[in-house]
Amino acid sequence: MIAYITGATSGFGYSIAKRLASLGYNVIVNGRRKHLLEALCKEIKQLYPVETEIACYDVREQESVFHSVENLPNQWKDIDILVNNAGLAVGLNSLQNGDIDDWNRMIDTNLKGVLYVTRAIAPLMTQRGKGHIINIGSIAGKEVYPNGNVYCATKHAVDALNKAMRLDMLKYGIKVTQIAPGAAETEFSLVRFKGDKKAADAVYDGYMPLCAEDIADVVEYLVKLPPHVCINDLTITCLAQANAGNFCKK
Ligand code: NDP
Ligand code: 8X3
Fold this sequence. Notes:
Helices cover 42% and strands 15% of the residues. By secondary structure, it is an alpha/beta fold. It has a single domain (2-236), classed as Rossmann fold. Strands 3-2-1-4-5-6-7 form a 7-stranded parallel beta sheet, with helices on both faces. Helix 5 links the parallel strand 5 (131-136) and strand 6 (174-181). The longest helix has 27 residues, at 100-126. Residues 6-13, 30-33, 36, 58-60, 85-88, 109, 113, 136, 138, 181, 183-184, 186-188, 191 line the site of NADPH dihydro-nicotinamide-adenine-dinucleotide phosphate. Residues 138-140, 148, 182-183, 244 line the site of 2-hydroxyethylsulfonic acid.
């Protein structure tokens, strides 16, 4: 059993990779920070009797994505699970004041990155008539919130692509599932606020957000479902969050 997880150096991807390894999956882990991928693989191998493989590249770079997947050792090509997780928000500005470089980073990572990785890996699944693609969307792909504009647009695109993948892969027996989480405390806000820890911490003030392990729990549930069952879409928030903009904070 093989799982391929993008964005595994922190947050959801890191916890999902460890969880899938605990379930006996050999894991291919992607991200840009190679030292963190190496540390993760070392940790996994110490904990679980599985193999690991590093796929260090930037999902925005089309050639790197295809080169990496094409050059996987043959024994790593029978990928059972792809978790399209790598993604980010950069900035929180009104559209009229938006930073176009920030927009491009989000569009290239969250939208094109998912497309490139899926285009590279899905054929390995369709040719076997087997596989499960798990797309990490967001509540921001269901609703918009003030100043979320482009991030929300990229996650709405993931929501659409999830439906499109489900349709296009229907006849091949490939499961496709979107997980759309609400606020979760990871490196997400630190990245969004460009390293401003105070601003990042403030996002989670006054309530208990989701954590990465909560999302790994969901992934574990999904991959343990019987072969004939496919959850297409799943929105998950912490108790204190009702929708994209409404929180009950103390
Ligand atoms: P983190 O910032 O903790 O993790 C993001 C991961 O994505 C890192 O491993 C990072 O690795 C990787 N990544 C970012 N850009 C690239 C890139 N260009 N190429 C390869 N890898 C990349 O955030 P989360 O774990 O919270 O985010 C994971 C996903 O969940 C994202 O898609 C995010 O939009 C989504 N999400 C997050 C929510 C939250 O509140 N935290 C809620 C809903 C959805 P590296 O920097 O090493 O490349
Ligand atoms: C991340 C959650 O609410 O900040 O996707 O958009 S939110």
